[in-house]
């Protein structure tokens, strides 16, 4: 019996450990899968280059709110179409509960729920409704720390007939028709934790992490590259050479720039990179994806670069130029060219004389022949 109980207890312990491991794994994966993809980019670069995957968000900038009661505020405005079509501020209230009315005629009859930032009820109460209370009212919620802004609009009409009291939707806003002299309740309810939670910002940690999926790998099987917390803690994963080539700025939460820089890009770095931004307090869960491809490395040109002559700069004085002339050692180096010229001239003159001599000789011979023929004919 004891042996059977021991085996049964060991089996229960194994099942308990398996269940705990399963839920731990699911919770770790849900942190990545729960984020919403807000952008996707195709990025390529040559092998050996430096690649930057830009991931920026102003809502993730970490700031310590030293005046916590003023990081959230609600204010009601009214737009009147007569007489001057103006927008008036009715009342506002900070998260500490302090209310401020902007007109003396609203004292004692216009108010907000003092516990609005605890129960999420920001409705406006108007007692003793008057005809000039008619207008388009807007409930504006501002969360300065989380950069959130939400608005609800309600049209208030005042009637003197009890039978005309009603509420309806006109296609764009809710319309309340209220009897004059009664109390009007303009609803504005938002019970999201970002408006009602009073937890310290240190307990609602901001975290950014980068994942990488090799080609063909599913998202839930991605490898974690780095975790970065607003407290300054940073955790890198993978081999040491991989940690050294992938970096995030130390001022990421101060600048809102969580870009990942990859140095010495290689074909093995191809894949899908995901930048996850989580601000649990503000309800921010975003993911940006980058599809990285590696191209062939750039071939450097080994030919010398021929620089074109630059335009002469007249504003600068030209440096003196020095020309070195090397003369031969022979003293009669000037006579050699002169001798070649004289020889050529004499040869040309000699050829000219020969031509003249031959020409005259032929002319004289022809004249002698004619004279001989003449005298021979005369004597005969």
Automatic annotation (TrEMBL):
Pfam families: V-set (PF07686). Residues 1-28 form the signal peptide. Residues 48-159, 180-279 form the Ig-like domain. The chain crosses the membrane at residues 334-358. The keyword Phosphoprotein does not apply. It is found in: Cell membrane. Gene3D superfamilies: Immunoglobulins. SUPFAM superfamilies: Immunoglobulin. InterPro entries: Ig-like_dom, Ig-like_dom_sf, Ig-like_fold, Ig_sub, Ig_V-set, MXRA8. PANTHER family: MATRIX REMODELING-ASSOCIATED PROTEIN 8. This is Matrix remodeling-associated protein 8. It comes from Xenoophorus captivus. The lineage of its organism: Eukaryota, Metazoa, Chordata, Craniata, Vertebrata.
């Amino acid at each position: 019996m004891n042996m059977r109980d021991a085996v049964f207890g060991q089996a229960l312990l194994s099942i308990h450990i398996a269940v705990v491991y399963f839920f731990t794994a699911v919770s770790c994966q849900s942190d990545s899968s729960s984020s919403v993809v807000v952008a996707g980019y195709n990025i390529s670069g040559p092998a050996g280059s430096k690649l930057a995957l830009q991931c920026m968000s102003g809502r993730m900038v970490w700031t310590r709110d030293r005046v916590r009661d003023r990081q959230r505020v609600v204010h009601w405005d009214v737009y009147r179409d007569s007489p001057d079509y103006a927008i008036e501020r009715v009342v506002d209230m900070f998260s500490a509960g302090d209310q401020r009315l902007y007109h003396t005629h609203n004292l004692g009859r216009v108010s907000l729920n003092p516990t609005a930032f605890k129960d999420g009820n920001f409705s406006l109460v108007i007692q003793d409704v008057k005809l000039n209370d008619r207008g388009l009212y807007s409930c504006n919620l501002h969360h300065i720390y989380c950069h959130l802004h939400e608005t609800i609009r309600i049209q208030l009409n005042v009637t003197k007939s009890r039978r005309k009291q009603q509420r309806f939707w006109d296609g764009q806003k809710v319309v309340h028709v209220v009897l004059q002299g009664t109390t009007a309740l303009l609803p504005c309810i938002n019970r999201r934790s970002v408006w009602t939670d009073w937890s310290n910002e240190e307990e609602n940690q901001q975290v950014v992490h980068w994942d990488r999926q090799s080609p063909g790998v599913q998202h839930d099987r991605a490898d974690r590259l780095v975790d970065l917390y607003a407290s300054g803690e940073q955790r890198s994963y993978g081999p040491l050479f991989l940690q050294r080539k992938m970096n995030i700025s130390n001022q990421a939460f101060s600048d809102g720039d969580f870009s990942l820089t990859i140095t010495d890009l290689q074909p093995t770095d191809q894949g899908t990179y995901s930048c996850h931004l989580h601000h649990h307090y503000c309800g921010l869960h975003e993911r940006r994806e980058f599809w990285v491809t590696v191209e062939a490395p750039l071939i450097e040109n080994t030919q010398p670069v021929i620089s074109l002559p630059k335009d002469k700069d007249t504003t600068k004085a030209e440096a003196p130029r020095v020309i070195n002339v090397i003369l031969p050692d022979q003293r009669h180096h000037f006579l050699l060219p002169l001798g070649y010229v004289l020889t050529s001239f004499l040869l040309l003159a000699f050829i000219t004389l020969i031509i003249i001599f031959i020409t005259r000789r032929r002319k004289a011979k022809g004249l002698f022949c004619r004279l001989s023929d003449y005298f021979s004919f005369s004597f005969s």
